[in-house]
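Technical annex, item 7. During the second reporting period the consortium partners agreed on a shared format for inverse folding records so that results from different sites could be compared directly. Each record opens with the tokenized structure and is followed by the designed sequence. A conforming record, contributed by the partner at site C, is shown below for reference.
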């Protein structure tokens, strides 16, 4: 499986720059504020592409590091585009979804965080990241 960085560069068809992601210092501050370490795949996402609008906010919205929240042992990291549900992960990289914010009931997603993020990057591009309908056939 490609790394988040490799997949993102392929999807946006250019090398990533420092402006695409958050700094290590910013992510350290977020983790200190939360009192919990982010799982490696989520940290990799924020460092590589967390500021890239095509991948982080074009459809569903990844929380900015300063907005990351905890719900007990879970880290809330993404909100659905119509604010109907949110996604969270734990330190074991299990992904959960919740749609009732007043009385949270978390449902496990069928894939772990690394696969969830890969699928989400494709979905972000298909639902608004691309300025056109899709990639050119044969491009890889």
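Designed sequence (site C submission):
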């Amino acid at each position: 499986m490609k790394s988040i960085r490799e997949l993102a560069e392929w999807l946006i068809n250019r090398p990533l720059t420092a402006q695409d992601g958050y700094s290590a210092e910013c992510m350290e501050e977020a983790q200190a504020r939360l009192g919990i370490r982010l799982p490696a795949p989520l940290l990799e996402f924020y460092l590589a592409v967390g500021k890239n609008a095509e991948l982080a906010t074009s459809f569903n919205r990844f929380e900015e590091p300063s907005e990351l929240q905890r719900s007990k042992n879970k880290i809330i990291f993404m909100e659905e585009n119509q604010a109907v549900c949110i996604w969270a992960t734990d330190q074991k990289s299990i992904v959960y979804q919740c749609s009732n914010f007043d009385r949270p009931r978390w449902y496990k997603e069928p894939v772990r965080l690394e696969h969830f993020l890969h699928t989400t990057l494709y979905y972000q591009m298909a639902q608004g990241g691309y300025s056109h309908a899709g990639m050119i056939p044969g491009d890889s």
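The two ends are 14 Å apart (CA to CA). The chain is about 35% helix and 20% strand. All partners now use this format for quarterly exchanges.
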